[in-house]
Amino acid sequence: SERLKGKTAIVTGGGSGIGSAIATLFAQQGAQLALIDLNLDASQPLAETLQRETGLRCIALQADVTDEAALKRCVAETEERLGPVDILINCAGINVFRDPLTMEDADWQRCLAVNLKGPWNGIRAVLPGMVARQYGHIVNIASVHGHKIIPGAFPYPVAKHGLIGLTRSLGVEYASQGIRINSISPGLIMTPAAEAWLESCDDPTAERQRQTDILPCKRIGEPVEVAYTALFLASDEARFINATDIVMDGGRSQL
Ligand code: NAD
Which CATH architecture has domain 8-188+222-249? Predict the structure, then answer.
């Protein structure tokens, strides 16, 4: 079935990992897509492949989500080429794990700019159109770090707590206008970013095993699993779900 038939979706961070999985599933479910990523190397070929395989329009646009004006231009270009934006998935994000005392101020700034201001920039760019049409679904990719404090990850959790706060606050503000804003908080998901983090550990093999063993389900998550949750939240099936967060971490945060 095509659960997003006739819809137009923007996915930030669509060039890798969770964003790519969301883009792929959304295209299979009938959505036209604009992938916004800093890096076109992966998002451009993915857009071409999805367009070829589905026959639906799929474009790749380059922007840094911290650049509000650039995101506005991307949304304008998407509306021009694909039509009104029904769905925004804010997935672009970066891991910034630092020692609080020795961290450079630039790391703090970049962490908050990409992971928190970035989603707000995306939302701000699509909101006027969504308000005018009284319709829109927005999903922010937060993290289990936005709920449970796992030592050694500062200041990333600060941004992800903020993103969940942004979701709840704006979800309430726009609820009466046909716009739903929710977030997903994944636990560890095997993506290029997660691989890079594992490789940076002193003993990557041991760390991978440890990360697997501490999970109640004894396996690390897959990007497509986050995509299924995003599909549900971005579809009309979730029309009574608003201003909330879905944790999907294989049960880890219950321990
Ligand atoms: P990834 O690095 O594989 O993909 C992220 C994509 O975002 C890349 O294509 C990158 O180019 C793009 N991007 C980064 N900064 C950008 C910017 N400033 N502007 C535009 N694009 C930018 O990462 P991933 O693991 O797929 O993570 C995706 C999201 O999921 C992030 O928000 C991350 O915090 C969140 N998350 C990931 C995990 C995990 O374990 N992988 C767990 C919880 C949450």
Answer: 3-Layer(aba) Sandwich (3.40)
pLDDT at 213: 96
Q: Residue 156 catalytic?
A: yes
Atom of ligand 1 nearest to the CA of 192: 3
The pLDDT confidence band at residue 188, using thresholds 50, 70 and 90, is very high
CA 209 – ligand 1 centroid, Å? 23
CA pair distance 67, 103, nearest whole angstrom = 23
| Ligand 1 pocket, CB under 6 A | 12-13, 15-19, 37-39, 64-66, 91-94, 114, 118, 141, 143, 186, 188-189, 191-194
How far, CA to CA in Å, does 130 sit from each of 9, 13, 84, 159? Answer: 12, 21, 8, 25
pTM check: above 0.90: yes
